[in-house]
Each structure stands twice: as C-alpha cells, then as structure tokens.
Amino acid sequence: MDLERPLPNPITPESRPYWEGARAGKLMIPKCRACGKPFMYPRVACPFCASRDIGWVQATGRGRLFSFEIAHQILNKAFKVRTPVVLAMVELEEGPRLLTNLVGIEPDPKQIRCDMPVEVCFEKLTDEVSLPMFRPVTGGTR
Amino acid sequence: MSDLARIRELSNSACIVGVDESDEIGTLPGKSQLTLHIEAITNAARDAGLKVSDIDGIFTAGQHSPATIGEAIGVVPRYVDGTTVGGCSFIIMVGHAVLALHHGLCDVAVVCHGESGRSGVGVSPRRDTALSGQFEFPYGFGGAPTYFGLITTRHMHEHGTTLEQWAQVAVSTRKWAALNPKARNREPLTVKDVLDSRPVVWPFNILNICLVTDAGGAVLLTRADRAKDCAKKPIYVRGAGEGSEHVMLTQMRNLTFSEATRLSGEKAFAMAGVKGTDFDHIMLYDAFTSGPPLMLESLGIAKRGEGVHHFAEGRSTPGGKLPINTNGGGLSYTHSGMYGIFPIIEATRQLRGECGARQVPKAKLSLVNGMGGMLSAAGTLVLSNER
C-alpha cells in the first residue's frame, strides 16, 4: 500500500497504549497517579513530580488550537499529502499539548485563529495504525 | 563564599585570543566537514600566535567528538567537552572552557566547529528519533522551520507582531552583510522582497529563514595572565551562562518566551556585573527572523512583544544606536547548521576593531546569545576588550 504519510516509527513500548487507543478511536494519555496530572509524551516517570506510578486515561478529545503554520513545502519525502497542509499544536482540555494537523478548514491564515476550539478525529493509515488529527469544532455539531 | 562571589571569580579570568573561520565558507562540495573543522582550528591558532600543539583542551559539539578532533590535529588533550545541545553549544562551551582554564585543567582551549551543512560531505546523520518519529514526523513536521513557525504564529497572536516586523529583521541584517566581504548574500533587500519571496511554512517565506552553507569556525582561549603574550588584543570573557529547557516543542512551558535564554542571560549578566542595557554591540542567533526579537525579550532587554522595535527605524543597522548581527548573521552571512561559533568570532573581531567597513565605533561591551534547537537550550556571553 502506498501511504501518504510516514507511519509512527518506532512505536516505543511506553507509547503502546497511546497507539492502541488511537486504533480504537480513543485519545489515551498518561496520567500520574501520585500528583494527578496528565502529560504527554508517554514516559515512565511523571515530568511534574517524578513519580513512577503512571496510569492511562481517555482524554475528551477537545482542546484549543494553540498555534499553527501552513506548510507549502515538506522536507520529509515520506510525507506525500498535497500541500498546503496545516501543521498545528493543540492544547488538550486536560493540559498536555500535541503536534498534529488541523483538517476540515481551508489552509488560509485569515480563516484559522489561535485558541479556536478543536476536537480530535482519527485518520486510519493501516489496520494497525490510526493517527489523531484535529478539526475545528463547528457550532451546531455538539 | 557566596554562590555569586564564586561565579564572579571566573569573570575576566580567561580571554579569547584567537578566532577564525575555515579557509572558505559557502558552498564547498570539495571539502569534508572534518576538513572545514581542521582548517578553522589551524587558522584560529595562527590568529592567536599559538601553535596547534599548544592546544590541550578540546571543546566541540555535533557529529565530531573531541576525541576525533584531538586525533585529527595530533593533540592528546588534557581536557575534553562534547556538550551537544544544539547550535548554541559552542557559546556554552566558551563558559566551560573558562572554568577549565581557571582551575588549571587545561592551558589553551579550542572551541571548534566544522559542518558540511549544504554539501553533506562526510556527514552521517544518526540520532534518536523515537519521539519525533512517533509524534511529529507523521504530521509533516521535520526541519527547523516547521517548529519555529509555531512559536512565531503564537507570538503574533499574543503580541500582535506582524510579518512586516519580522521582515525588518532580515532587512537590517542584510545591511550588515553588504559590508562583510565574507557574507554570502550582500545585495540590498527590502521588506517587500521578504514578503514577496517564496512561501515555505507560513508565517515564513524563504527570506525569513537562514542560509544553509558549509563552514567551520574556531575560538582559542587561554588564561588572562597568559593572554598578553598572544598575537592579538585579548578579549575578556566577563560573563558566561547557559540554560536548557526542552527538546520537543510541546514541552516548552511558554511558547513565546524561552526559559533557557532567560536563565543563560541572568547567569552571564550576574557573572559580568552588567545589565542588559549596558551593551553597545549584540550578536544573536538568527536562524529565523523572529528569533532575535524573542531572544531580546527573553533576556529582558526588550519588553514582551517589543523585541521587534530594536530592528525598526535603523536602530540595529550600520550607524544605528545598537548594532545587531554585524556579520550579516545566519540570514545573510553563513549558517552551516550549528551557527553558534560564528557570533563569537564576530564579537571578538568587533571588540578588537578589525571589522573595516562594518566596524562598530568604540565597541567595548558585546553580548553574544544563541539558541539550541527551538529556543530549547541557550548560551550567553558577555565579552569586552577591557576588564
């Protein structure tokens, strides 16, 4: 199969629940059982309190567009999605930030605003891998 | 003794005594990066009036370990440092060299760089990409502009900075490049040229982004008591500081303010006993036009959102009140990938009075600040031609 995007590689053991969640259409994030703070990226100790007692929770998938840019040119040859593409940083309601793509909107800096509400959606790349993406929350849908 | 007194003891204890680039900089498909590195070291040693065999401390970052460089120049060093935290590593290592020299761990330190960034001769890219491979590359991220653009967009949102203001940084820097015979791009540039240039990653067009070149650079240091026997006027390291906050951009606590930069500046200014307003010459790491304004803000030299004002109305240009990036910067002079050695070289030359048409009159106190990664790590130096 000819993929439009590089697959996440390598999927590290500590990130497996994130990717297994994505495959099932759930945005799973690690959360420290000691201090109660969720965080990303997955790691074996909490970046806030260094506790090794880490669990996983399902995020609501809602957040805000923290920042964005519009790529007219992609350096990575394995990424073949037609440009322009909106590269984005999303801040989840729970706090952690993710890099992602913003979809479902024209790639036009006049239409996209920092802090606009966004929600997760998933793009299936293979039977094993789906990728969390984000789209603007439109007024009537929720 | 207080911590500050201990730090102050290092101030002025060592000097920069030799600086130079590789024989040529630019597009050099006929030279490996090891060649660029060795050329720079031998040239800087000559500039100092020292022999390569006098070097006994090697400080280098990137793909060459200090062991590789010691072997290549035929030196068995007494002290090695390979701190690699991005392009500012060389700025940070000047501070490390001062510390090692002060305590007698070495007598002549070389901080050195060689990179075939454009032609890729002798380059082997190998690093841990487990995190970016999972959480960044599938989305099209990769290459510095795709990260620094996010910082820049957020700054525009929070502070109302504009594409025109970023462009002004490129225009100012090009005015200096026009006066530097070694600069790659020297033809005049306007704000409109920048705004009309090829879009790469909005908010960046190609003229908002640094060059990609092949180049080497080296800086030799020795203790102040020994520096007077060298060929050129010694340049005192009055202050040095470093900081490191993050690598992945999602982990940066405040996307428009660099903690690493703030820390590095506070430490360097305290060691030197200076304020951010004392400088008469400034060198900032300009991989992108938005970088220098954000660095001025994080260093406390400009208020939040107002760093761009330093580049308005000719303040930073030749003849301006506070000259910035007088070599033409990474934007117009050279940028091999890890640019940090070059602002140190330029500040030293300015303080020696060697800069010809671009000489800043009566430059006495120079600030060098650079970033590693995306404002992830930072190094700051306070340099002076008097102690």
Which word captures the global form of chain B? globular
Please state how the strands of the largest beta sheet of chain A are arranged side by side.
Answer: 5-4-3-6-7
User: How big a fraction of the residues of chain B is strand?
Assistant: 15-25%
Annotation, overall tally of beta strands of chain B:
11
Radius of gyration of chain B: 19 Å
CATH class of chain B: Alpha Beta
How do the SSEs of chain A run, as a string of H and E? HEEEEEEE
Query: Runs of chain B with pLDDT <50, length 5+?
Result: none
CATH superfamily placement of chain B:
Thiolase/Chalcone synthase
Summarize the structure.
The complex is a heterodimer of chains A (142) and B (387). By secondary structure, chain A is mainly β. Chain A has one domain (13-141).
Record the SSE blueprint.
The complex is a heterodimer of chains A (142) and B (387).
Chain A: H1 16-23, E1 28-32, E2 54-58, E3 62-71, E4 85-92, E5 97-101, E6 117-124, E7 130-136
Antiparallel strand pairs in A: 1-2, 3-4, 3-6, 4-5, 6-7
Chain B: H1 3-10, E1 14-21, H2 33-48, E2 57-60, H3 66-73, E3 79-81, H4 89-102, E4 108-116, H5 130-135, H6 145-159, H7 163-177, H8 191-196, E5 199-202, E6 204-205, E7 214-223, H9 224-227, E8 235-244, H10 259-272, E9 281-284, H11 291-298, H12 329-333, H13 341-352, E10 365-372, E11 377-384
Parallel strand pairs in B: 2-3, 2-4, 9-10
Antiparallel strand pairs in B: 1-7, 1-8, 4-7, 5-6, 8-11, 10-11
Description:
The complex is a heterodimer of chains A (about 140) and B (about 375). Chain A has one domain (about 15-140). Helix content of chain A is about 5%, strand content about 35%. Chain A contains one helix and seven strands. Chain A has one helix at about 15-25; strands at about 30, 55-60, 60-70, 85-90, 95-100, 115-125, 130-135. In chain A, the strands form two sheets. In chain A, strands 5-4-3-6-7 form a five-stranded antiparallel sheet. A two-stranded antiparallel sheet of chain A has the order 1-2. In chain A, a hairpin with a 5-residue loop joins strand 6 (about 115-125) and strand 7. Chain A starts with 15 loop residues before the first helix and ends in a 6-residue tail after the last strand. In chain A, about 30% of the residues are buried. Chain B contains 13 helices and eleven strands. In chain B, strands 3-2-4-7-1-8-11-10-9 form a nine-stranded mixed sheet, with helices on both faces. A two-stranded antiparallel sheet of chain B has the order 5-6. In chain B, a hairpin with a 1-residue loop joins strand 5 (about 200) and strand 6 (about 205). The longest helix of chain B is centred in the first third of the chain and has 16 residues, at about 35-50. The mean pLDDT of chain B is about 95. At the A-B interface, strand 3, strand 4 and strand 5 of A face helix 5, helix 6 and strand 5 of B. Strand 3 (about 60-70) of chain A pairs antiparallel with strand 5 of chain B.
